[in-house]
Amino acid sequence: MVDICRNLRLKNATFQRAEISTFRLPEHSEHLPLDAALGFLSLCTTTYKDLQELLARWNSWLKPDGLIAIGTLTAANKGYPEMLEEDRGYLDNVEIEFMGFTLYETLLTDKEWQHVISTAGFDLLDKRIVEYMPKDQRCRKEIQTYYLARKRN
Known about the structure:
Helices cover 20% and strands 37% of the residues. By secondary structure, it is an alpha+beta fold. It has a single domain, classed as Vaccinia Virus protein VP39 (Rossmann fold). It has a four-stranded mixed β-sheet. The protein has a two-stranded antiparallel ribbon with strand order 3-4.
């Protein structure tokens, strides 16, 4: 994905591939502040605690009115009961099948995703649910949720 973006040769655009849970931008980086931060189907690989810290870090890197875009699998998308809404709103280290592979992920309810986004200092602009059917016959249909939010000033 990063290689595709780099090949677009966009002026003043930088794309970086990194381990999401440990990546840090230097406080005085030439790339700060950022216009946007994106996480597509990778944020669910962190723990709930790390997710909260990550979104707070993204907030500190963004310019005023900067955007975040998140694509993820919610607890409901993966068939977990809505009883999570009454409990804590998330499950860490859940074994799931994704694109033919077994992974361990953190699943949040939609309500909890919106709470985490808001608590990190963002206002939700849009939410969309998309059904994706991979071409690989070994894979099942995925229901993915996408959030777009703006940094609160």
